[in-house]
DNA sequence: TATGAATGAGCTTTCATTCAT
DNA sequence: TATGAATGAAAGCTCATTCAT
């Protein structure tokens, strides 16, 4: 767990460290990231790093949590739709998804972090960090799911963790696909179609 | 790329090497796998390994390709459904999916390899290997997609690589969810529901 | 040397520090003991520790001296035997030895400390501390020796520091041997035989 | 365990490594010895060191075993006394002891190593090495003990491991005492008196 | 065709100690 | 009198890869 000492640092220095770590993890993933490069870039000593964080995984977990929370805060909550009914819910989701994509596109390093988070890992230290992250994001997803169900927009015949897993998987797939498009393809992402597929998979059967 | 030299080895020795590598990669993932352990288990010298394979990623790509091809061969092709129409196609897919799951459950090391393959990686060498693997599996998936479309079972309004990405993502999500269930849950996987979601996402809109 | 500042602390806090240090040194030996753990357990700051003690070795020397003095005080002095003659002296020694063993068995941490003290060390800081400790215990041993000589129980043809070294060495050997016995061996230590060997080595020649 | 690779090295390089390690361990003890210094002094790479030895403790065990075996070989075995009876046995022991002391005095680094060996350790890796060393030396000591008993020179009423422990403890004590004498004391060590004490402790009671 | 010795850059982590406040 | 932030040197160890034979 991040030590309180870190929180007591001058914001500028906190930023420097987090930024350096973000760069490193985004560029090299978790395992290949080098703490040596992080401390060089952040301009602190190796001792200091271990004074602030338990270990590499702790640093990763912290930097990822900060970035994700910032992202969620930026995008704003998935608000309760103004009108009742599935259509309004899915519109809200699509709007949120488009926003999130836009922001991730503007912050490719955070997108990269997210991919590291979602990647499988055999490393126990990283797994700990991943669990910690999950604990940050899952409640948020569950809230959205509840909202969807109360709008009659999401099926209730399957367990919610399965639905969430599928939603994450589809999101990841779309991300992969978007990434694989040639860089000069300036067409906007087909968010309508993508959310449409998600909707069809998750909405109640008729 | 695997060197032809490897193919010229006595099959027994090829098996020994591939088996050792499969064990190692399945147990430790790509990065944490140790070539030293592989050559110890395979009973060959370090020099020989580099005589047969370019590098670690090359070994991984080869072992993964061999295992996947064996898996696909075991399960058999997704045959042209005996009857026309979407229902027959999706039944075939579900049957295939159930078979594949069964086989993966029987070969956990191959399942583990698949997860390594599907995991995102920032490691350039591994990415190269992943691309190589993709080249093995994609044509197969595309064949299935064509089949589905000619049955009217799969939408044609979205690019096929997007549909494939979504299918892979959902498959991965289901795998994750299946893995996360308590080990003593002996209920059979809800393949029907899972393929149902896939179908709803991919079938043509009405 | 312990700073007088330490003596001025409230006894409760002195106890907390000494107890934490005793635990740490007994568990990990000198080198592997961590000052960080000690200050955590004692609930004081790093700065305070260095305000009270010169360094790690100083802390070790102090904690060891306190414990040994307490042990000697508990066991009581090797009293002048009530009767004259060697037999009475050696009986006293044996009684003392048995008492000391009993007490060490009841305070394994102190026993562990004693072993660290008696262990050879190339570490200059620890050597300094060991010398300091010696200065605490040697006078006590010399008093016993004088007692023995005046009873005619201890030879006078060899220098007293040699005799003391031999006595310590034999004590250490016995300790080692006692420790090496299987834990389920509940037979009482053969103190008679052990002191008998010591006696034969140290008593005057006939 | 030392790897056979090491034995295959040119003798000159083996010597260089063993010599560097001996210097380092003798000067700094086990824990404070630095592998980095050893490899610098030996002129080999870090990788090579770990190619030859499992780890630090393995290196220590090997260097110590080599030196002790050389010492024992130099001094020669404790030969069966030419005449029967205790006196001849103890004369042999004293002669051996004097020889060994002479040689240790001529090789202070080996003496230092011996002290590290005999020192207590909390370090599991070092303990492993110490056990390994013990396995080298104990049989030798036991042989001497058997010899002594068959000459009627050593008591049979106490277990041999206790007698050996006492003998080692006394030897260590004498070593300590000899070391503590001022360096300008050129008087020969009182081996007669020292062995005399050992004899009195170990010989049968009358 | 096959070997295995040799490498050295790289890793994460620990720790006693200093010093400005 | 007391703090705790900051340090940097040092540690042991792993590994994929190269290359002379």
UniProtKB/TrEMBL annotation, chains A, B, C, D:
SUPFAM superfamilies: Homeodomain-like. Keywords: DNA-binding. Residues 11-71 form the HTH tetR-type domain. Residues 34-53 bind DNA. It holds the Pfam family TetR_N. InterPro entries: DNA-bd_HTH_TetR-type_CS, Homeodomain-like_sf, HTH-type_TetR-like_transc_reg, HTH_TetR. This is TetR/AcrR family transcriptional regulator. The lineage of its organism: Bacteria, Bacillati, Actinomycetota, Actinomycetes, Pseudonocardiales.
